[in-house]
Amino acid sequence: MNLIAISINHRTASVDLREAVHLKEDEIRPFINLAKENQIKEGLILSTCNRTEIFGIPNNNEASHENFQNLLLNFKAAQNISEHNFQKFISRDAIRHLFSVATGIDSLLIGDNQVFKQVKDSFQVAEEANFTGYIMHRIFDAAIRTGKRAISETAISEGAVTISYAAVQLTEKIFSNLSKKSALVIGTGETGEIAAKHLSEKGIGSLAVTNRTQEKAEKLAEKLNAKVIPFDDFKESIYKFDIIISATAAPDILVRKDDVKTALKKRSNNPMILMDIAVPRDIDPATKEIDYVFYHDLDSLNIIVDQNLAKRKSEIPKVEKIIEEEIDNFWEWYNSLQAAPAIKDLRDFFEDIRNEEVEKNKNKFSSEDQEKLDIVTKRIINKILHHPTIELRKADENSNSVDSSTKIGIIRDLFGINSRKKSEKE
Amino acid sequence: MISSIHTINILLPIFYFATLVVYFYDFLKGEVKLVNVKRVFLFITLFLHLVYIVMRTIAFDHPPITNVFEIFTILAITISFSYFLVELVSDIRGTGPFIIILPLIFQLISSLFIQDLTEVKEVLRSNLLGIHVISALLGYSGFTISAVYGFLYLTLYKDIKLNKFGLIFNRLPNLEVLERLSLYSAVIGFVALTIAIIIGVIWLPVAFPKFSYLDPKLVGSTMVWLLYAAGITSKIMGKWRGKKLVILSISGFIVAIISTILSNFLAQSFHSFY
Predict the structure, then answer these.
(1) Which of A56, A129, B34, B265 could form a Cys-Cys staple with A43, CB 3.0–4.6 A?
(2) Residue A333: inside a domain, yes or no?
């Protein structure tokens, strides 16, 4: 199989190099067109912040990894990128690599299921751009099935592996229903924004944000349908919130132990969660001594993240087993696309039907006619199959195996020869 | 029939033990596949236990409520049955092993010491007494389960505060749920105990000439009842919550245990029949 793949990713290149070849959404279609012009008939382009990957089945056997690389480097006019920044795969290895990416075991953040969605999206783009043929389609299906199996059959995507998710996970161990809780995010920098988004995605009942620069808070609040609280007097209203996440760049402590004590009294000891994900810290760590206050900082959240990452790592062998199973399945199907066995299966299929009907009906004929019946029906079948057989042999001799495989695949699908053989096996 | 009763009597602790092992294994591994397996184990054990109690009642012509070892086997089945319901209704995993260990202990003690009593005092065959005892036992099962959930609440509370994110953190449901489970079981226990006390106070003086309001079991139960009444009222009024409430539930349970032990083994009382 001449599936070729190149990959530039977090293992092979630094951020700036990865950024230099990153294909933005609006660049992917023009790039696919360029690939088509350059004899790549079908394929897949995947480009995220951690990786850019090109999978393709070239029209002729001369195309190589270098062609793929040059295509990308010329398109992006990228410099300083050399041969060793690319991983290269061919055939079965290329499929294994795609499955590894789809299942998240090749990701920087192991088991990251963001990448599974990205793989699916890039399949869709390829499909819409008419970049997918018969074989590639089958590879897509197998990759998606592998990804889904990895998620459902293993714990590869379980547990929070980022600080802000760990904060949410911890919250869910204290409160049962976030939709009845209110949260305040102090500081709307990148970290604060991500935390606010996670809370909003998890269906927090009411969300408020506060920031030293009021406009920034307002902007985020608009996005997430949250309230804005003026930064100068947010301390007076902390008693209204069940969850407080702080992520400012302030050099000093913003929320003191006494502030929390007062707030807790006002809310008659209703538990409060304080997540301090700022460096240096915003909330006085001594607040953790107060009953009904759950104070956590980066150190404690990191414990959760590390534990979950270790757990995910230990799931990799299980995922690899699933990948091998799916590759085997795919390969079995792919091998059935060879001309000789396909012709034999097709002929056997027709012969079986003929034989069955003759056996069923031959008693309606006299004994001399029975022999004639056999000869005539055989002749009919031979005539029907004559042209398809010649076409299949011709396609096989032709150097372009994608066309031949496609033809064979369609014939097998049309007559249900694969499924028939499988059910016989079972 | 008697020989089957003896066989099941030996089998029951073994079944409870097997169920506990499955629950504990599931707690350690957290595999999805085991969810149904463990329920099947618990269900079979419960069914066997029910058969056992029905057979005893028929064979010895009285419900097994006439002495402490008969009562223990009833306590074992009411606790595990209540837990079975909690698990089915709430779909909460991970608390099973902490509960199942109790019926195992009760059944083990019962199996070791229970006797084939056919001669019981006439007064113990009364229907009202049956309701009195069964509601009292349901009450105590409720308090037991409430105390276990209270204990789990405190453990998880401490673990979260001290940044210990181990098995307890990963497997137990969240604090609010544990608090709620503890409260609900306490309320059910409280209602059942109230019924037991009402029946007792109205009917017992008539049935027992030796009846006294200073009977240790009666005094003990009233103390337990008052404790839970105070806790539940303060929760409803929104004064107490979380840690305070579960500590109250655990204290109530300890008082209940102590009062049972004292009145059953030490004090002379009309409540003792053996």
Answers:
(1) A56
(2) no
Give the active site residues of A: 49
Region A321-342 average pLDDT: 86
Strands A87-90 and A4-9: antiparallel
* Nearest Cα residue in chain B from A166: B165
ipTM of the complex: 0.78
Contact A285, A295 (CB under 8 A): yes
Same domain flag for A33 and A122: yes
The domain tally of chain A equals 3
Of B177, B238, B243, the CB nearest to A268: B238
Segment holding B104, helix H or strand E: helix B96-113
Beta-carbon separation of A174 and B174 below 8 A = yes
Scan residues 121-160 of B and list those with Cβ closer than 8 Å to A: 156, 160
Angstroms from A292 CA to nearest CA on chain B: 8
pLDDT at res. A135:
84
Neighbours of B127 (CB within 10 A): 8
Q: Provide the residue range defining the domain that includes A271.
A: 163-309
Residue B204 pLDDT > 80:
no
Do A291 and A345 have their domain in common? no
The CATH number assigned to the domain holding A30 equals 3.30.460.30
The Cα–Cα gap between A280 and B163 comes to 20
CB proximity B109 to A under 8 Å: no
